[in-house]
Amino acid sequence: MESIDLLVLRTARDWLAAGERVLLATVARTWGSSPRPTGSMMALRNDGRVVGSVSGGCIEDDLIHRYTTAYGGSGLKDGAPEVVRYGVSADDAHRFGLPCGGTLELILEFNPSWQSLDELLAHLDDGRLVRRCLAVAFGQVTLQPTATPEQFSFDGKHMLNTLGPGYRMLMIGAGALAEYLATMALFNGFKVSVCDPRPEYIETWAVTGVERIVGMPDDVVRDFAVDLRTCIVALSHDPKLDDLALLEALHSPAFYIGAIGSRRNSQLRRERLIEHFGETQASLERLHGPIGIYIGSKTPAEIAVSVMAEILAAKNGASLPSEFSVAQAKHSIESVASSP
């Protein structure tokens, strides 16, 4: 399953290339509560078809009524982009389904250049990070490959949106937990790969849409072109495989690195990496283990939910309270159980 940003851009490009009229809407600024973060996009076709979203649905309905022929309107126009605001008053917030006090500002691009979108998508499909700058007054778009992600911004004149290839997940070990985790990662828009040199595991892999890689994990991680949108999860339960992958991953820019294992096994792993491979307490700060957030999970499916939640928190820059840690939660439970 493709990430929603790529799906919106690709659909808009394809509609425009087919001669359709298209509106590309982007959430530019928000005040108070908002259903969608800044940078969220949707593409609206002249006949009312929509891909992506900028709200919970009511603003999309208003845009369809205003700008398409779906309800007998005049259809999408040409011209410079427009900035529109929803939810300024309490009545508007209620009408458009915004949370209490929420205000949303959108940038509407009418029939953007399909050639520009095609160029952008070519960069993204090649794994490049691209800075897209829109001059709102004229509708002029410039694309600049970059190595550094920037926060989405809009100063009233220029919209800057750093877009990148879809998020990727590399799993080491093709067991049952990996299959559940892969399914959830695909559902969340990740491109998923699984590495396992053991034929009895990799040859029985059952989840479609996942790239299967046969090879030693350290070589696979080294050749994977790991970037800031990559997470690496060691799930084999075999130190010879997991440790090798982690040694390479820890010196990569991956946004999340984790390994399955109990508290004892996780501690033993850290000791091995320090004693035998020259790692330090500082270099191991990025290593999650035991992985996941504490939800009392027991089955592979439940553990996968726990792990995916922690990965998404890291992806979204959400800081989790210490009591969400598996190790901390279990220590607290044991302390309570052993107290008189």
From TrEMBL:
UniProt cross-references to InterPro entries, sorted A to Z: MoCofactor_Util/Proc, XdhC_CoxI, XdhC_Rossmann_dom
Domain XdhC- CoxI residue range list: 15-87
Every XdhC Rossmann domain range: 169-311
Pfam families: XdhC_C, XdhC_CoxI
Name the record gives this protein: XdhC family protein
Lineage of producing organism: Bacteria, Pseudomonadati, Pseudomonadota, Gammaproteobacteria, Pseudomonadales
